[in-house]
Specification:
The protein is α+β, with helices and mostly antiparallel strands and 376 residues long. It contains twelve helices and 14 strands. The strands form four sheets. It has a five-stranded antiparallel sheet with strand order 4-3-2-1-5. The protein has a four-stranded antiparallel sheet with strand order 6-7-9-8. Strands 12-13-14 form a three-stranded antiparallel sheet. Strand 10 and strand 11 form a beta hairpin. The radius of gyration is 21 Å and the shape is globular. The N terminus is likely disordered.
Length: 376
């Protein structure tokens, strides 16, 4: 790989085809990315990072010399840890329309081009240089107007209203189908969600209620609030006063295709054990599994679980996107004991396979069940 090249920010015409992207974790250079002739990502750790760094994706990119090639699937030649940084769902829709508005063809962008547009604005702590991001990190309070504009964007392929630029610049690279923005409030960074076309008008209140219930049930949750009485907001757990935290989804860590059912909760327990070697973290996974099961959250796909790196130690990330959902055809996207229509006994069977104490698991199950019933 050659030295980094410089690329100007987005211009109205043309596109500079990026050949090399440098990956940073805060101010530390982690390594470099290039593309093979076949369109596969090739990654190489920086020599200095190898001496005192930690793997950013322990299974795909162990800390070692040499170039590692990504697989073709499931991320179109990308590594899962970097795919996590790219927009999908709403973020992808907004990004592609933003490019078109500026005279660029989204279909002509390579993976490296797209990572460059994420730059320093993505989820987690990874940053990509050259940095062509164009994000606004300021406070924004006219949520009613933005919410109205998101509905217009969702309803028209050609809409380019007055809030389009604001939505893009506040959007960063959030995933998921529901429109959302990043914003600051009282000095903290938040992710704020708006209603999707198919959502009920009370979706914000509903998600806020379930976030409070999750905390009551002992799940680790970031701070949440209901902005203007209707818009659900959650404090970003990948942002701290000391800086950004590295976060990787289970999909990214295991190269699992989150678009289809591909995992069992036992896989998440095994991943947690391999990364954290901590039984307390394993019980966090269990509480989330039980909560999802009892409230009927069947949209429990591989990107809705994550691990977070704090002071060079992996932890199971705080819960997010937890509210009742139909999943695929009404079944759990992540099976429990290989069942997509699990029973209570399936939960306890997974617990035993994961090496956790069954009696303690039953006690926790009963506690969570009682609190959910009491707050129904």
């Amino acid at each position: 790989m050659k030295n980094m090249i410089s690329v100007p920010p987005l211009e109205g015409k043309g596109l500079k085809n990026i050949k090399l992207v440098e990956v940073y974790l805060g101010n530390t250079k982690v390594g470099r990315l290039a593309l093979t002739k076949e369109g596969l990502c090739a990654f190489e750790y920086d020599a200095e990072y190898l001496t005192n760094g930690i793997s950013i994706s322990p299974f795909d990119l162990p800390l070692k010399n040499g170039v590692t090639l990504a697989k073709r699937t499931p991320f179109d030649g990308n590594f899962g840890v970097f795919d996590d940084c790219l927009p999908d769902g709403w973020g992808l829709l907004l990004f592609d329309r933003y490019l078109q508005k500026h005279g660029l063809n989204p279909g002509k962008l390579s993976l490296l081009d797209r990572l460059s547009y994420v730059g320093s604005s993505g989820r987690g702590a990874l940053e990509f240089r050259p940095d062509q991001s164009d994000m606004n990190n300021e406070e924004y309070f006219d949520f009613e107007h933005l919410a109205s504009e998101t509905q217009k964007i969702l309803g028209s392929d050609a809409y380019e209203g007055d809030a389009f630029e604001s939505l893009y610049k506040q959007g960063g690279s959030p995933g998921g189908a529901r429109p959302k923005i990043f914003t600051k409030y009282l000095g903290k960074e938040w992710l704020l969600k708006f209603r999707a076309t198919t959502d009920p008008s009370t979706i914000g209140q509903t998600e806020y209620s379930y976030s409070l219930l999750a905390k009551l049930c002992g799940l680790e949750m970031p701070e949440t609030r209901l902005f203007e009485g209707k818009y659900f907001g959650v404090e970003r757990f990948d942002r701290t006063p000391k800086g950004k935290l590295h976060v990787v989804s289970v999909a990214g860590l295991l190269n699992a295709d989150y678009r289809i059912p591909c995992l069992d909760y036992l896989n998440i327990f095994q991943l947690c054990q391999a990364l954290t070697h901590n039984m307390q973290e394993m019980w966090k996974v269990y509480r989330l599994m039980v909560f999802n099961y009892l409230i009927g959250n069947k949209d429990d796909h591989a990107k809705n679980f994550a691990f977070i790196l704090c002071e060079n130690e992996w932890h199971f990330a705080p819960a997010f996107d937890i509210l009742p959902g139909n999943g695929l055809n009404g079944y759990h996207t992540t099976s429990i004991n290989d069942s997509i229509t699990p029973s209570n006994e399936d939960l306890f069977a997974v617990v035993e396979k994961a090496g956790l104490e069954r009696n303690k698991a039953m006690t926790i199950f009963n506690e969570i069940s009682e609190k959910i019933v009491a707050n129904d």
